[in-house]
Fold these 4 entries.
Entry 1:
Amino acid sequence: MSENFITSIKDRTKKYQLVVVMPAYNEAEHITENLLKAAEIIASFQDDFSIIAVNDGSSDETAKKIAEASNINSHIQYISYSKNKGKGGAIKEGVEYANGEYVAFLDSDLELPPIMLKDFINDLKLFDAQVAIGSKLHKDSKLHYPIIRRIMSMGYYIMLKMLFNLKIKDTQTGIKVFKQDVIKPICKNLITTGFAFDIEILATASKMGCKIIEMPITLNFSRERREKSRMTLKTIINVFKDTLRIKKHIRNIKF
């Protein structure tokens, strides 16, 4: 467990219909508002739910602001630790504490509206699927999205098709819903915590024989400058290296 680990989750035996894991890194400016808004929207279609906000070793006041949101709305719980682990690491921590029939991932900037979770869950039930993922490449998706990110999404799709023969087009969109008995064992054995962690999760779920459905999304991309600073050539090379490592790891998994 990470040093300086703090959690507001007191009763890990309580099971919810839906647990939403929301990772956050240096989001102090908007995180209180976003968590409260997410809780309000989710409450409009689901009574029995919990949000687990994960402060991933932020260097600003994200931890304090998350705690403030938790004090205002009891649906909001949190995990906080001092060492940054990356988004995949934050998701892994959140899933460990999640206890719900459905476990969702949702980006804390709310560029992906939480109301979409309603249709994700409904379609999981309708199509008897175990995983529902948002897809920027779905024909019905509505996007305000920079061209470089569109090119990268297509590149991911081609790479996944070649390496894993995955029938899904987009692994990287930050809204996903899983049946708990699927995501718990996957995250427990997760070897990647960087940008490629989504690939590992979905490739593993596919090997497990899970039915994965892709859902249309609405996305208003507002972080182009920040994303440019994060998506360096070094990052892209590391994603490729991690993906090859994932390929080897998944080949050796026995179910």
Note: The chain is about 45% helix and 20% strand.
Entry 2:
Amino acid sequence: MIFGAILAGGIGSRMNIADMPKQFLQLGDKPIIVHTLEKFLLCSRFERIYVGVHPSWLLHMQDLLEKYVPDQKERVTIVPGGSDRNSTIMNIADQIESDFGEDDSHIIVTHDSVRPFVTLRIIEENIDAALACGAVDTVVEATDTIVVSEDGKVITEIPNRRKMFQGQTPQSFRLKLLKSLYHDLSEEEKEILTDACKICVVRNQPVKLVRGEVSNLKITTISDYKIAQAMIGGNAVD
């Protein structure tokens, strides 16, 4: 079975413009997370879509389902988020196995709640690649020169840009593979994880690349939020 996993466990500390996490801010006529969820609901291949939400915002998320997607709320399960991104994924993984049992064929498509412009093409290609390869990352080619600095003051290295890509989401996996690799990591290794694909990279598991889109931006800063509002034709909060 194939499952969506929308990650909304954060509190948006880098964008302090409202008294709520950034995923719940209005984007046009509905919250950011609703736009994201609606994109996942367009994909008929999902058995169910799980949304990992900070425990303080579970009831708010339930209210959003009732208001914006009442006719499809049965396809969505809300799960308490963990202390970080990957623990939220593991909470969702545990809930999937509680609901549907353990199965080697289960696929999980994980996605940032604040990437509301993901396309159905990207989601479908993630699913196909995960079924074929077991682990997938969505990327776009790096257009700027990448500069490495060990101390943040002087350049240490300038890698070949033709080999550089910028990571996006979705990131998709065979669920059993991801759980096995994650639980094999030491606590020190877990602390250096920046996303789920690094779980695979640390354990030398090949990760297939799927082409993303520049428009699949992540709303992290106020500037990102204003760009997203312009893309959708709305007005940003001042």
Note: Residues 117 and 216 are 5 Å apart (CA to CA).
Entry 3:
Amino acid sequence: MIAAVNVMAATAQTSTMTNADTVVVSEQNSESVSESRFTIGGYGEAVMTRNFYSQSFNRYNAPQRYKNDASHGRFDLPHVCINMGYDFGKGWTMGTEIEFEHGGAGTAVELEAEESGEYEAETEKGGEVVLEQFWLNKRFGNGELNIKAGEIVVPVGLSNAHHEPIHFFGCYRPEGETTIFPNTWHQLGVSLWGRVDDWRYEVQLLSALNSESFSAENFVHYGATSPYEYKVANTYAVAARVDNYTIPGLRMGLSGYYGHTFRNSIKTPGASYDDVKGALGIVAFDFTLSRWNWILRGNVDYAYLSDADAISSYNQANWTHHKYQDGCPFKYSNIASNAFAAAIEGGYDVFSQIRSLRNKEKLYLFGRAEHYNSVAAGTYKSLYNYCRKYRYAVGVNYYPIKDVVVKAEYAYRAFKKPNNNGLNPDSPLYVQPYNNEPSLSISIAYCGWFK
């Protein structure tokens, strides 16, 4: 999210107030924005969910054992973000975003009577606090060319470029892209971007991802984070995105990424890995159509990782060495050579047909379908069949005002049934099908500027 309303018309950052869905409007109304150089805003979500399936971490290894487990509920604050920005003048602007995921982390020091009066540091809750954006931007001309440097959002895929709660219908961010890619993907780097007529472009130079944090279930999702006080940059990567707005109400975007991931670590692999690069390539297409009281969104993402078997071998060797060490931050997991995600969702504003509510409130009835697989190809594909998932959802989004939304969603996560070729369930060759995973969620969210 860009962090100043008066900055948004000039910079068109891929974010809440200036993302590809709303940038045209913000530029057309630039004369009416606040004259204040400082702006603060943000967004947040609170979710209540009931999952009608087992919460055991082992439910995919022995699905029959957990088939009749009781349902379980969760209350969550997925994302609460504060954005601040400042316009220094002469084309120089600054933006920041501080994100509290799942309510943020909490620790406390306690004097334990049961421990003979010893002081102990206690972990009070899960979650994390992240500085998701911190950048300086220089605008040239009327915004056809900008240079931005700092901690920036990497706009690869629909869910990274448009991650605020008003830009998806579900109570949680879409599963597919957020499973296989970092989300919200942010890294230190330099960005060259701008808008020319109906085209917005962006090219970024970044530190590469770290393959030590890749995993079978999440592909490269955790590769952008660093457990150290700095981000290792032994290898580099490029990301790019282009959006087109030629057709009224329609935005189409194409994005991509390329970088070597294997040596972007403080550890030096042995000579046997000299030829391993871990080249990661991603290509993604997405669109948003907002017209005729409809909102339609869709995305298709494909990723390829070279040397996946060699990296898996390296990770397994490191896992054997470090499995008894406390505090090892890396996954050291098997890795797939391919991953993909595809989704489509659509919602219709039924209040548009009620004269007394039209243009005052909105009520979208929506449906969503997506399919994704973090182990779509490679040596270990058959070991992780549960990573091939289908998810279907229906629900409502009610907007009493434009910056606040109340959501309700019924979702059904399903898995492809194994081909047992008529085998008896008691046969040792029989493959147990995974249990489907329905859930019901209700949430409330906001997204806007306070000043």
Note: The mean pLDDT is 85.
Entry 4:
Amino acid sequence: MQSRNVTRVCAGLCALLLSLTAACKKEEQQQANPMAMMGTPEVVVYQVAEQMVRPQVELPGRTAAFRVAEVRPQVSGILMKRLFTEGSEVKEGQVLYQIDPAIYKATVESAQARLAQATAVEYSARQKATRYRTLVQTKAVSAQEQVEMEAAWKQAQAEIAAAKAALETAKINLAYTKVKAPVSGRIGRSMVTEGALMTAQQPNALAVIQQLDPLYVDVNQAADEMLALQEKMGGRKEAGNTEPTRVQVLLANGSEHGAPGSLEFSDVTVDQGTGTVTVRAIVPNPDRSLLPGMFIRARLTSPVEEGTIMVPQAAVQRTPRGEEMLLLVNAASKVEPRLIQTGRNVGQQVIVTDGLAIGDRVIVQGLQKIRPEMEVKVVQAEPEKAAAAPAQADQAAPQAEQKAE
């Protein structure tokens, strides 16, 4: 009886040990292959489709003043006053310098006196000419004398015209003693001080005025690439488009400056030294933050849209070698890595220039649960939602990058 009980206890212990052993093996298998417990993972994909965007190109360039005027005196004399603040904004017609006007005032008064004298001579000659017309009819004077008197009157009239012209010239020269701004803009430093001798049409400028709003932007493009740029940026005639090419100035730190401008023209000659063609744009500069001579980059945007391929930025990964990569779902519903080349960003999407085709299914969510060659269940996403998908691409499994490598 006792031996029978011992046998039963031993059998129970053996059964317990077998069940514990099976449970441990099952747990080990689950820990070794956690994916087996999850089943087929679900991923959200973005199906690639053609999208219309406006082509862009960035070129280096420099800024140039819209207008540049050198201030020079038009009459000679001693400079009496400087009437502006260096570095300030001046208006067209504003008086900048005052030259001593004493001599020119005297010249005006002398011209006025000569005009008065010529007027008096003309009055006398006109009266005589009128009287001679009557006397010649009564034979009191000869016809020759009457003709000579008419000629003397006309000569007196010419003297008046000459005196008026001389007076006008004297007044102009007097006005030129006030040196005025030829254009509106920002004036630089003055090259002369009070007491300096000014000479009419002197080669050295008194100051320089530059108009800074708007501003020119001159960018250089290689001559052999100019035709491609014109085709890309000039717009197609058959499209009936009249909108100009937009130009956005990019500062040294990459930020955009103000409102975009427009492309004006391209030069008609090629620089023999550099082999480039200058393309000029005009951009607004209301805050005067851009100054002539600054190095900038200009982003040219075509007025004509063209078809391209874009994917959400969150889906783009990088291999250990730094190559850009996407994870796709192929026709067999398996994960497939794909190396790509990208262009510029457009909002939350990036343009793909090579490695992707219309209709490909790009994985945008669920990247942390998958690896290459794994079978997945596809959940289609709307293009707008896929573009705004949370950035989970950076959480992709390391195995995916190693497989792609």
Note: The chain is about 30% helix and 35% strand.
